[in-house]
Amino acid sequence: MTLSLIYARSENRCIGADGGLPWRLPDEFKHFKQTTMGRPIIMGRRTYADHDNVLPGRANVVLTSRKDFNPKNGVELRHDLDAALREFGADGGEVFVIGGAGLFAEAFPRADRVYETVVHAEVEGDTFLPEFDFAGWTSTKIETHPADDRHPFAFTITRYDRDR
Ligand SMILES: NC(=O)c1ccc[n+]([C@@H]2O[C@H](COP(=O)([O-])OP(=O)(O)OC[C@H]3O[C@@H](n4cnc5c(N)ncnc54)[C@H](OP(=O)(O)O)[C@@H]3O)[C@@H](O)[C@H]2O)c1
Questions:
Q1: CATH number (domain holding residue 42)
Q2: Can you tell me the distance from the alpha carbon of 58 to that of 130, in angstroms, rounded to the nearest whole number?
């Protein structure tokens, strides 16, 4: 199994505001969709609540400690990250952790790959990504996207692979 994290963060490491994303960047979302399509995506309960929907073409796995949580049909509810990784990575393929902040922190020490979008702005919000140390990782620039009429901020996408 390849464990991958995928996120977009601002220069000041903000990833969320009021339960949602602090920006609307359609081409960044396209990158997220293309990258994760066909593979399992694991998310925390609040990240799921943000869209309250099933993202098509992928197993949608929601982690919660609650036993009474009632998500939409098609959502796979689980209560433990390691067990979910074993189960949904059993085919040996890529499994994505898609947030939020606590899950990224829990998954980073054992991640194989990180798809990081840096949104080139200082943004206000309430959810922040911890610092990740990419010493011992190889970085590959994927895309630099300018600000334009559909994108209020420029952003850069980098892929990091842990050296083995
Ligand atoms: N920019 C990005 O790339 C990005 C990505 C994802 C999310 N976001 C944003 O981040 C915010 C949400 O993130 P968040 O950090 O507040 O919350 P979150 O991680 O989405 O959800 C936290 C909840 O998930 C459950 N959970 C997390 N880890 C678990 C584990 N190991 N085992 C069992 N349950 C676990 C717990 O639910 P219970 O309380 O039910 O036990 C916990 O309270 C939103 O604003 C969202 O839009 C941004």
A1: 3.40.430.10
A2: 27
